[in-house]
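Worked example 2:
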Amino acid sequence: MKKILFLGVFVIGFSPLLWSQNTAEKEEKHSKNPRVQMPWGVNLSYSGMIVGCEVETIGVSYFILPQIELDADLGTVDYKQAIFTVGTKIHANRNRSKCGLTPFSGLTLGIFQNEGGILKVPVGLNYLSKFGLNMSSSLGVIFATSGYGDIFLEFKLGWRF
């Protein structure tokens, strides 16, 4: 009888604790923020500079937090030079935000094949649909170690999973 009573007290005493942990895990798992549900992404991008140079890249990205996205891109400049960039973007949204549209700003470092290093500072809008389509548009400045500087307009289209 004592064992049954002890078991009953134990189950009743610890069930709220077990229930709350399970609920917290489910809540985190089923967060409606699309950047939590689909942190990985692949994308194609096109950038145009004021001086007429064009950059096409393919890349991957990952949201380490719903507000912080890491990017890595590989592509060409006017189909003549290779370019590799790595950077981060800060998205203005909350952890539990259900909104797919967020403004962002970022900082990207890269290497041109013949020009040396570059620094890009984009400011733009990103849209992430509930089924994974990811689109962004940004305007920013780019600086090269060779002294080159320009304004760019970039469009990205991709898929998040």
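The domain at 34-160 is CATH 2.40.160.20 (Porin). The chain has two domains: 1-30, 34-160.
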